[in-house]
Amino acid sequence: MFDYLIVGAGFAGSVLAERLAADAGKKVLVVDKRPHIAGNAYDEYNDDGVLVHRYGPHIFHTNSREVWDYLGRFTEWRPYEHRVRASVDGMLLPIPINLDTINQLYGLSLTSMQVEDFFHSVAEPREVVRTSEDAVVGRVGRELYDKFFRNYTRKQWGMDASELDAAVAARVPARTSRDDRYFTDTYQAMPLHGYTRMFQNLLAHPNIKVMLNTDYREVEGLIPYREVVFTGPVDEYFNFQYGKLPYRSLRFKHETVAREVFQPAPVVNYPNEHPYTRITEFKYLTGQEHPRTSVVYEYPCDDGDPYYPVPRPENAELYRKYKALADEAEGVWFVGRLATYKYYNMDQVVAQALSTYRKIMGLKAASNGRSRVPATELAAT
Ligand code: FAD
Ligand code: UDP
Predict the structure, then answer these.
(1) What's the CA-to-centroid distance between 72 and ligand 2, angstroms?
(2) How far apart are the C-alpha atoms of 192 and 181, rounded to whole Å?
(3) Which residue from 130, 158, 128, 124 is spatially nearest to 142, judged by alpha carbons?
(4) Which-ligand-closest: CA of 353?
(5) E strand or H helix at 361, and its extent?
(6) Cβ < 6 Å from ligand 2: which residues?
(7) Lesser CB count within 10 Å: N end or C end of the chain?
(8) What is the DSSP-derived secondary structure letter of residue 323?
(9) pLDDT tens-digit profile of 71-113?
């Protein structure tokens, strides 16, 4: 008898498996319908021996000391700060938009203070910042929005930025400094031996069994377990009874070329040309040295694996209905990007899994995130 059936071997499922097995001594069965662990963070050496991310570039960054320390028990880190260029007007310019972006784009030599004035002069102020269009146009005006955001967003989401929550484009906020890093988090690094190796370590506990190539519905009723942790799409779990929750998908085109370097930056975004959104060259991310180099092109589409929840009010409304069902489902815990329909980064999923673990165990987080006291004991003292 297993204490837990965990559906999905991505961050949500693997972190919960590790905590339940190693911290609480539970017996755990992890099933994933894919032929590998690590979910969308899966990486592998391709036929040419280059380490690539099968499901697109995954760069780890977090402000959470707890998440950083926790994952650090399962991997060493390689310091890495991500940088992206956008192909605009025949140039490769820093994105997020920063001081250098403006100076290079317009042939100016503004200072940080002057570029703030520049943003003010072109911004179309919004009383309420509701949509992604509001978020960008309200800060840097329509011209920069048109050059960097409008078409990228249309390609990526199949809809206009005015139809998406502000939070989507707000992931890439304009700056007045020359900081050209994509993320500004306190901790930024890549797992030294890759994500898959880190997941192997997470799942290495003797109380954890992993079954791949297995949809959980194939084992339901055959293998006994007490409770379920579900990390797949929440609408699928409930047989789409309120209709499908929209997810955006991607088609990945992987390619290896017989030269050492493909492009001058780890990622180049193509807002205005090509049907793909961006090209990633993996060796920048992994630090691998190799005479060849591998890249991936991302082609957004509607059909295919669900990769992105689509943040907009009507979808949040539909999700609320599924969440009500999830809250009522006894002995089933819904965790992760698909199961809680949140546009979460990896670290946010890890934090959510750690906090779900505390909920499951009835533990309360201590302020240092280490020693935890059961809620019952707290109540008694
Ligand atoms: P997943 O990794 O999706 O895991 C869910 C697992 O459940 C899957 O393996 C699936 O096969 C399995 N499953 C589903 N249904 C069933 C079923 N019926 N039976 C059995 N198994 C099932 N985050 C960052 O922090 N930095 C980045 O740079 C970054 N880049 C990204 C780039 C792309 C292209 C994408 C799509 C995402 C990116 N992310 C990034 C987000 C990151 O991938 C997610 O936050 C994280 O992987 C989510 O983990 P999860 O466990 O919730 O979901
Ligand atoms: N975005 C854009 N142009 C860019 C980069 C981002 O319009 O050059 C917008 C786009 O809507 C995108 C969102 O900002 O979906 C978030 O970008 P991010 O790079 O965080 O997306 P992810 O890595 O999650 O695909």
Answers:
(1) 28
(2) 20
(3) 124
(4) 1
(5) helix 346-361
(6) 86, 95, 148-149, 152-153, 156, 168-169, 171-172, 269, 271
(7) C
(8) H
(9) 999 999 999 999 999 999 999 999 999 999 999 999 999 999 9
User: What's the gap in Å between 171 CA and the centre of ligand 2?
Assistant: 7
CA contacts within 13 A on the Cβ side of 31: 19
**Higher-confidence residue: 124 or 379?**
124
Sheet holding 225-230, edge to edge: 208-211, 28-31, 2-7, 225-230, 332-334
The residue to which tokens 């779900």 are assigned? 356
Minimal CA–CA distance to 147: which of 27, 273, 1?
273
Ligand 2 atom index nearest CA of 298? 25
Who's near 32: CB < 8 A, 6+ residues apart?
Answer: 7, 8, 9, 10, 13, 39, 210, 211, 212, 213, 214
Nearest to 233 by CA among 1, 39, 82: 39
Ligand 2 center to residue 92 CA distance, Å? 16
**DSSP per-residue codes, 34-56:** SSSSSGGG-EEE-TTS-EEETTS
Residue 204 has pLDDT above 90, yes or no: yes
Q: What is the pTM of this model?
A: 0.95
DSSP 133-150: HHHHHHHHHHHHIIIIII
Minimal-distance CA residue to ligand 2 atom 20 = 171
Single-letter amino acid code for the residue at 131: T
> Measured from the CA of 12, which atom of ligand 1 is nearest?
51
Rounded CA gap, 135 and 250, in Å?
25
CA of 231 to the centre of ligand 1 (A): 9
Residues 142-192 have pLDDT tens digits of 999 999 999 999 999 999 999 999 999 999 999 999 999 999 999 999 999
C-alpha angle 5-9-12 in degrees, rounded to nearest 5: 85
- Centre of ligand 2 to C-alpha 173, Å, is 10
Give the number of other CB atoms < 10 A from CB of residue 237: 20
Q: Indicate which residue's Cα is closest to atom 3 of ligand 2.
A: 149
